[in-house]
Amino acid sequence: MIKPLKEINTSENPKLQKLSDNLVKLINSLNEKGVSGEVVENINAEIEAINEISDEKALMKAIRKGYTSIIRTVNKELGFVTKGHYRTLWMSLGMTAFGVPIGLAISYSISDGPAFLGTGFAFGIPLGLALGVFLDKKAAKEGRQLSV
Question: Considering Cα of 36, then 37, then 42, then 46, what sign does the dihedral take?
C-alpha cells in the first residue's frame, strides 16, 4: 500500500492546494488499482521525500517533480496511463506525423513551393485525435487508465 501524503496547510496558497490534491488523487487511484512490489517502494520513497519538506516553494517543486516521476514510473512499469494521455500525445504526433506529409503533398501538387503546408495540419490533427481517443478507450476497457 502506498503511504499517504502528509497534511499540508494550503489555505493561503491555492496552487499548492491544487498540486497536493492532484497527488492525493493519484495515490488514491493507484491504491484502488492494487499496485504492489518494487513500484510501491519507489512511490513511497518519492512521497517520503515530499513529506520531509517544510518550505512552501520547495514543497511545490517537489510535488510537481514527484507527481511526474510517479506517473512515468507507473506508465513504464505497469502500463497505466492518465485520462486523455493518448489523446494529448497523438494530437501532436498526428499534426507532425500525418499533417506535415499531407501538407507537403498538397503544397507541391498545387504549387511549386510549401505555400500550402498548413493545410495538412487540418487533416493531421483530427487523425491524431481519433487515434488517441481510440487508444484511451482501449486503455479504459483494459483497466489501465487512472482516474486522474
Answer: positive
